[in-house]
Every structure is written in structure tokens, then in C-alpha cells.
Amino acid sequence: MSAVIGVFNAEGSLKGELTYLLKKTLGRGHCSLCDLTHGWSPRMKRSWREACDQSPLEVNLLHLDELNEEQAQVVLLAPVFMAHSGDRWVVVMNAAEISAHAGDPEGLLSALRERLPER
């Protein structure tokens, strides 16, 4: 099974989550990965859970403040999906590419599988 990490454009602390919601409400911030996985709810969307359950990918989701130092150096602009390739992390899908799959978690996961680096 291949593993990927999705990185939200937000911090996971209560302050970070509230800051993100305020920016989103005011139209000053956006995270296409948040929209795909959660929308406005703190609970994960059923469509995202079901797509992950049916996919052979192991998908882990992290906030900006949950990345280790090596991962944080790769993320220039979140949201992104990254995977481990050889001895380093690489971005396999950027924010614009994630946005292109809005409302289509199955399509996003399929596209991710095609982009994964060879092991």
C-alpha cells in the first residue's frame, strides 16, 4: 500500500482552526483540501471517508503545525499532498491540482495514485 500525506492550509490548534474559519468566512483564506475533506463541518465528510476506504492508498492528513522539519521544508504553499521518494519528501499534488478535484474525492485519490513516485 502506498502512503501519502495531505497537508491542510491551517494549523491544528484551536486557535489555528478558529483563525482559518474566520479567514474563510471573510474570504481571506481558503483550503481546497479542507473543503474536500470537511467543508464547514468539524467532522470528516462521508464522501471523503468512503473514497479513502475504497482506495489502496494510505492517506494521512496533517496541519501545518503537525509537520516534522523535513516535511515542512517541502511545503511551500499548502494545501498539498506529499509522498516519500527515496530519502526525501516530494510534493505530488499542489493546491491548484487539489482544487481541480473539488467534490470528487475518488478522482483526487485516483490522480494521486498515478503521480506517486516509484518505490
How much of the sequence lies in strands comes to 15-25%
The rough form would be described as globular
Instruction: Tell me the major beta sheet.
Output: 4 strands, mixed
Query: What's the total helix number?
Result: 6
Rg estimate, integer Å = 14 Å
Mean pLDDT: 86
Total beta strands: 4
What is the SS-derived class? Answer: alpha+beta
* Spatial ordering of strands, largest sheet: 2-1-3-4
Q: In terms of per-residue confidence, which ranges show pLDDT below 50 for 5 or more consecutive residues?
A: none
- What's the N-to-C terminus distance? 11 Å
Run of helices and strands? EHHHEHEEHH
Helix content: 40-55%
Q: How would you concisely characterize the structure shown here?
A:
By secondary structure, the protein is an alpha+beta fold.
Question: How is this structure best described in words?
Answer:
Helix content is 41%, strand content 18%. A four-stranded mixed sheet has the order 2-1-3-4. With 119 residues, the chain is α+β, with helices and mostly antiparallel strands.
Map the helices and strands.
Layout: E1 3-7, H1 14-25, H2 32-37, H3 46-54, E2 58-62, H4 69-74, E3 80-85, E4 88-93, H5 95-99, H6 105-115
Parallel strand pairs: 1-2
Antiparallel strand pairs: 1-3, 3-4
Structure characteristics:
119 residues; single chain; 4-stranded mixed β-sheet; alpha+beta; 6 helices
